[in-house]
Design goal:
Protein name: Transcription factor TFIIB cyclin-like domain-containing protein
GO molecular function: TBP-class protein binding
Radius of gyration: 14 Å
CATH superfamily: Cyclin-like
CATH architecture: Orthogonal Bundle
CATH class: Mainly Alpha
Number of strands: 0
Pfam family, one: TFIIB
InterPro entries: Cyclin-like_sf (IPR036915), TFIIB_cyclin (IPR013150)
Helix content: over 70%
Shape: globular
Number of helices: 6
Organism: Natrarchaeobaculum sulfurireducens
Number of domains: 1
Amino acid sequence: MMAEKRTIAELTGEHTLPIPAEKYLDRFTDILDVEDTVAGLARSYLEALAEARQGSSPSALAAGALWAAANTGDGETSQAAICEVSHRSDIQIRKIANTALEEHDA
């Protein structure tokens, strides 16, 4: 998604705003066929992350929020699967997920 966006920006000379983390979360939950309850919980974690992790990429925030939700929710969505669709490392996802859990419970 980001590669396409950069290519279009280079070709047109116009730069666009970053893709919101919510869009990445929607994409990841669709690809992984995540249950609605887990997707809703992930959105809640993503909202909690909004201010706590400024500077993190939107796709990393979405992946971390999804892992936090999957880890506490269904247990069916693996961290490896989230890493694969998000192109983020397991370490980065775990750090963001831990922050999401802390911020959400605060």
